[in-house]
Amino acid sequence: MNSSAVNDSSATEYDPTFLHARREAIIVFLVWVVALLWSVPYCYSHGYVSGVTPDSLEMVWGIPSWIVWGVAVPWLVADVFTTWFCFCYMKDDDLGESDEGDHADEQTAASSVADADRSTGAGQ
Prior knowledge:
By secondary structure, the protein is mainly alpha-helical. The protein folds into 2 domains: about 15-95; about 95-124. It is built from 4 helices and 2 strands; from the N terminus they run ααββαα. The protein has helices at about 5-10, 15-45, 65-90, 100-120, and strands spanning about 60, 65. A two-stranded antiparallel sheet has the order 1-2. The longest helix is centred in the N-terminal third of the chain and has 32 residues, at about 15-45. The termini are far apart. The mean pLDDT is about 75.
């Protein structure tokens, strides 16, 4: 194998925008996995207990405790984390210059042609 080909592939540098997006996606995925690994086993072990009567069911704020600790609390923690993550951790990256002006001119020209066709009946 050619040594220059190996050097070229190992010297590949990724765009900083890609690196930020990948890092943020990994963090979101890991938080999702942690929530899954808490909620599913907790709800299974505390919610599917045999021999539970309505009188012996533990309640928190009128809700079965396994729902509060297995679903509601992780949901609230995830909401707080998501809010912090979005407003404090995620970064806006410069994506370069926008071509919005060019597209707007093309759309205006296309709508003018369509209007002219409708008024003359050429489009029918």
